[in-house]
Amino acid sequence: MSGSHSHSSTPIKREEGERGGQADVPGSLVDAFASRLRGRLIRPGEADYEPARELWNGMIDRRPALVARCAGDEDVVAAVDFARDNEMLVAVRGGGHGVAGQAVCDGGLVIDLSGMRGVEVDPEGRRAVAQGGCTLGDVDRETQRHGLATPLGVVTQTGVAGLTLSGGIGWLRRKHGLSCDNLLSARVVTADGRLLVADGSQNQDLFWAIRGGGGNFGVVTSFEYRLHPLGPEVFLCFVFYPAAATKEVLRACEHYLSQRPDDFAPIGILGKVPEAEPFPPEAHGKSFAALLAPYPGDPADGERLLRPLREIADPICDLSGTMPYTEVQAILDEDYPDGWRYYWKSVNVPELGDELIERLAEHAAAAPSPQTTIDVWYQGGAMARVGEEETAFANRDAPYLLGIEANWEAEADSAENMAWVRDTFADLSSFSTGGLYLNFPGFLEEGEQLLREGYGTNYERLSAVKAKYDPTNLFHLNANIRPKS
Ligand code: FAD
Q1: What's the pLDDT score for residue 19?
Q2: Quick one: 276 and 311 in the same domain?
Q3: Residues having CB within 6 Å of any atom of ligand 1
Q4: Who is most buried in 142, 215, 383, 454, counting CB within 10 A?
Q5: pTM for the complete prediction?
């Protein structure tokens, strides 16, 4: 099919709503669009079409009509114009690691920023500008060269776009806040094809909304972040205890954080010991409770201050040590291979009571896949000091976020793994007083209820900003905020 497009039309899927359904876009229009791009327009049948429609989450198998692999801001403007003018269904791809897998659609246009991965660092001004297709690894690599970092997530292949737009929770959340809290400005292509700068003085409502409101308001072509001194070496605490010690481990961590300033931001991980080095063979397959986080300061201080957390019980294995921050950032990478199947949900809880801890341990032990974990994110600190209405990101005062992460390889195991997530989520939700993290949203099955849960009192304002910048809901393949009528 390659090279023979010009006379045929492209069947496309239209936006939802009254105009929904199938339609054809004449080949001449598609060709004109292709020639307006500095990047590439990828069509079904072309050599790179298959990889272009693949996402991290192997549960997703969609066939877009067109993929616009953008090379810069102008390409994004052209793609938004084309999608809008032809009433196409439109998906936006940053790092392709969205948990719900909405970066690719069936029959529509994918605005693909994966070719836009430039990072520019201003070490004196402690700022970095990252293009919209950057991964965390791209940004850390460039900023760490100067001993600087911005708060991002904990797996390098994740895209900064989806991460930042819905919050961004990582190792620096208690010291420096969320990724979105460190956003200084962004360039956004809105549904009408304008390229806007959103920051503290221009388009302030848009700037407010994109700090938590996800991909609802336009395509972000670049993110400008505030940087902080960090590393390049840090001390990492990564210690695995037998599951019998789960209560002591989670309690000791809670106690530790109550005594310490807001610098250390651990995750408690409940899972099963991998059948691999360096874990002792007698522990393989057994349940564990691990504590994981780097100390974001002097490594010698970290080694000394984190010692109590490594002596809670007799560990199965202690992988703690001083290492480059970029290595810390990659420490979980191999646990999330591309193309595996994933189903992740989350819920905030106000306290870690005994009954909840017992249930966490029981659910983790009952998970059908040995790669599955339940994660306890200790929150608070800087992320909780930002006012609830200062950015769109809500539920900031929740002290604990529970991540329910099913990770498995074979399609045949999907039903069982998804059922485990649903049951676990339903049970753990009974301990919640509200709130969840919209970057761990399952497949967004709960619709608007999920959004109201995630945004709390900020939902109505988000809906009004949506009506201003995207009144026809062109950008709706996301955790969709309906425009206020
Ligand atoms: P994509 O799938 O490309 O995008 C997700 C959605 O964001 C798209 O559907 C679209 O609506 C929107 N979008 C993407 N790019 C743009 C853009 N340029 N402009 C406008 N909208 C856009 N989250 C954390 O907070 N902390 C973590 O530590 C963390 N770890 C993770 C580890 C793994 C392995 C994975 C898969 C996810 C993790 N997440 C974490 C969740 C992650 O933040 C989200 O999955 C996020 O959506 C990924 O962004 P992406 O750009 O890679 O995804």
Answers
A1: 46
A2: yes
A3: 56, 92-99, 102-103, 113, 132, 153-155, 158-159, 161-163, 165, 167-170, 214-215, 219-220, 336, 439, 477-478
A4: 454
A5: 0.96
- Amino acid 68 reads A
Q: Where does residue 457 rank: exposed (0-12), middle (13-18), buried (19+ CB within 10 A)?
A: exposed
Residues 6+ positions from 157 with CB-CB distance below 8 Å: 56, 95, 97, 135, 136, 137, 333, 336, 338
102 and 132 assigned to the same domain: no
Alpha-carbon gap, residue 273 to 429, rounded angstroms: 26
Output the six-digit token pair for 238. Answer: 């990564």
Task: Decide if 480 is inside a domain.
Answer: no
Query: Between helices 27-36 and 73-85, what is the axis angle to 10°?
Result: 160
Q: Are 378 and 257 spatial neighbours (Cβ–Cβ below 8 Å)?
A: yes
DSSP string computed for 183-204: EEEEEEE-TTS-EEEEESSSSH
Both 62 and 125 in one domain: the answer is: no
Residue 479 is assigned to a structural domain of this protein: no
Whole-angstrom CA distances from 466 to 73, 195, 372, 448 are 21, 16, 36, 14
167 conformational bin, left if phi > 0, alpha if psi -120 to 50, beta if neither: left
pLDDT tens per residue, range 174-215: 999 999 999 999 999 999 999 999 999 999 999 999 999 999
* 385 and 462 both lie in a single domain: no
**What is the DSSP code (8-state) at residue 483?**
P
Instruction: Please tell me the distance from the alpha carbon of residue 26 to that of residue 9, in angstroms, as a whole number.
Output: 4
CB 409 within 8 A of CB 341: yes
